[in-house]
């Protein structure tokens, strides 16, 4: 038994997870590699070749690295678990007029739980992934995620849903490094093909990046059911007809197929009425948002008027805000411009580089603010 302990490492076959496993192996951990099959493209009706984390080449790359460095590797089929939670949620959210974030759902409810379950079965003290983020522990004993050193690669936003039992056993070795350093490590380990390997930012189960086509394949007759709804402005005036509310997202400008003589953006979606509201770019700015389904990290909760930087999307730089407790979660009062707040997306609260917690942005109208 290694003095450092035994760690189950999620290996996708890509550069980040491979270097993670090899780094921990060199540091003296007893490493066990595991590759999770979450999806196959045949079930999506796509003719595109599988890429990313769910193809045979990636499985072989992960296994080869493990064999070459003398630690075991397993393949775990979690397609049923993944489909039930992630894909059904993805479809349901769009049908409810919201914009889901499947990566958050997958991390929170599937990958980490699946890893921990198998780690327990293999007597592994730790689990590890190739995410760019750090894990810290506050004086109060609670664990939390912090931003990675590499701002361009930081993935703390998608990890807000991890609960304390998961965080306490998770290792994220890449947090202190820049991507360029990880590429050099791959070269040093003798994997030049990994150092050059392109990265996919597509949703893994939407291989052609066409979520509208995916929805149509999953809900037969959807296109006919929602066609003919109305584009309206913020005053309710009819501007034209659209193709169906699930096929639009907040902030969308391209692909609206409507000519009004000036640029317009999707500013609202009403699934009950099958209407899509269009407005100017300035109409995307919102002073407040309601956030529910909370997961607290650094603290068990926060008092009213807690200052935080709130990120409302993955690439968002964040907006200074005040957090207020309400019956359904947290009301976020933005002190700067928060553009394109999309219900269904995650709102993540930061104190400096540390994640305080996060939740899901709600579609419900926000009542008049009564705080100070």
Give the count of helical stretches.
Answer: 9
Q: Point out poorly predicted stretches.
A: 44-52, 365-372
> What general outline do the C-alpha atoms trace?
globular
Integer-rounded radius of gyration: 22 Å
What proportion of the residues form beta strands (DSSP E)? 25-35%
Number of domains: 3
CATH architecture of the largest domain: 3-Layer(aba) Sandwich
Structural class: alpha/beta
Distance between the termini: 57 Å
The side-by-side strand order for the widest beta sheet comes to 12-15-14-13-16-17
Considering the protein shown, what is the CATH homologous superfamily of the largest domain?
HUPs
Main beta sheet: strand number and arrangement? Answer: 6 strands, antiparallel, barrel
CATH class membership of the largest domain: Alpha Beta
Series of secondary-structure elements, N-terminal to C-terminal: EHEHEHHEEEHEHHHHEEEEEEEEEE
Helix percent reads: 25-40%
Q: List how many beta strands DSSP finds.
A: 17
Describe the structure.
- The strands form 4 sheets. A 6-stranded antiparallel beta barrel has the order 12-15-14-13-16-17. A 5-stranded parallel beta sheet has the order 3-2-1-4-7, sandwiched between helices. A 4-stranded mixed beta sheet has the order 9-8-11-10, with no helix packed on it.
- Helix content is 26%, strand content 25%.
- The protein starts with 5 loop residues before the first strand and ends in an 11-residue tail after the last strand.
- The chain has 9 helices and 17 strands.
- The protein has 3 domains: 6-130 and 173-196, Rossmann fold; 221-283, SH3 type barrels; 285-361, Translation factors (Elongation Factor Tu (Ef-tu), domain 3, Beta Barrel), CATH 2.40.30.10.
- The chain is of the alpha/beta class and 372 residues long.
- 42% of the residues are buried.
- It is globular and about 70 Å long.
